[in-house]
Write a structure and sequence with these properties.
Layout: H1 3-20, H2 34-45, H3 49-54, H4 65-70, E1 86-97, E2 100-112, E3 117-121, H5 128-135, E4 143-148, E5 151-152, H6 158-168, E6 169-172, H7 184-194, H8 200-210, H9 226-238, E7 244-248, H10 256-273, E8 276-280, H11 284-287, E9 292-297, E10 300-306
Helix pairs in contact: 1-2, 7-8, 7-9, 8-9, 9-10
Length: about 300
């Protein structure tokens, strides 16, 4: 690569490691072209926290002293038989507010087996999204342990956690969190590129074709409908072939018909890839398409209902 190209790569690496993600140690980025490095850098300059999470880049999460001390502890868990996809043990989350400490999660423990589709339902403010964020490694619990795909993620620092998410976790939110300066194809390719995948664009194109957007790969988010944008977000989440897909109200911003189409696509992708699905939703009909329904209230699981074998 010529000198100008190397400078473009260094600019992108500085942006990633200094501006947004202090201390981040990512894959070498020398495989990127000058133009592509500049394009990614432009998109990341104004990246939201949601976009950063969907790209599986390091987040600056507040971490309690108890959890900080555990980062240096050796792993100490064992189970008979196959490890579950998700194992949460006594997860507690307390956030500070002007009125004092607020308990968001109060000792949540659960097991989700590999390949299961599990819905988390409950009233607004019950802690559903917070529990998903903890399980996905996007929020550090105040105490407790979260083991995902066999890794105790509560022991991982930000860099190691980002690398872990990159190879194991896909995330879809209610908001689409696409980078507006990139096409659908580029949005799906970014996390693959940052992970060092040489075939990032080929995999991104294939995933977009799978979600029915083959003719729209060169369109920008502003040129896509809400349903199409969520299809891009699903393709971005599934392209790295994650072991666990976390979906937080994925149909919440869509009309009934479009939401139904996205729900059909979500479960089709999950079944096709045999990915574990952890779904937060307010919709009972959507929840009943899962194998299990967990009901959360006041930061605690109050019911665990098996729907489908």
């Amino acid at each position: 690569m010529q000198g100008g190209g190397q400078e473009g790569i260094r600019t992108l690496e500085r942006l990633i490691t200094v501006t947004h993600f202090p201390g981040a140690r990512l894959q070498p980025l020398g495989h990127l072209s000058v133009r592509r490095a500049a394009n990614i850098a432009t998109g990341l300059r104004s990246a939201t926290r949601g976009q950063i999470a969907c790209l599986n880049l390091p987040l600056a999460r507040p971490i309690s002293e108890e959890q900080r001390s555990r980062v240096r502890e050796p792993a100490s868990f064992s189970m008979h038989g196959p490890l579950p996809a998700i194992l949460l043990e006594d997860i507690r989350l307390t956030l500070k507010s002007a009125a004092g400490a607020v308990n968001i999660l109060s000792g949540v423990s659960l097991i989700v087996q590999a390949g299961e589709a599990v819905a988390l339902v409950g009233p607004s403010g019950s802690g559903k999204s917070s529990l998903l964020m903890v399980a996905a490694g996007l929020e550090a619990p105040t105490s407790g342990r979260s083991i995902v795909a066999g890794e105790d993620i509560t022991r991982l620092g930000e860099d190691a956690l980002a690398r872990f998410r990159r190879g194991n976790v896909g995330i879809v939110f209610q908001s689409f969190h696409l980078i507006p300066t990139m096409t659908a194809l580029e949005n799906v390719a970014v996390p693959l590129e940052l992970a060092g995948a040489a075939d990032a664009f080929e995999r991104a194109r294939a995933e977009l074709e799978t979600v029915g957007l083959g003719p729209r790969v060169d369109h920008y988010p502003a040129q896509l409908s809400g349903g199409e944008q969520q299809r891009v977000a699903l393709a971005r989440a599934m392209a790295p072939r994650p072991k666990v897909l976390f979906a937080d109200e994925p149909t919440g911003n869509l009309d009934t018909q479009t939401g139904g189409e996205i729900a059909d696509l979500l479960f089709a992708l999950q079944a096709r890839a045999r990915t574990t699905l952890f779904l937060v939703t307010h919709e009972e009909t959507l929840a009943r398409r899962c194998h299990r329904i967990l009901r959360l209230n006041d930061g605690k699981i109050v019911a665990d209902e098996r729907v489908h074998a």
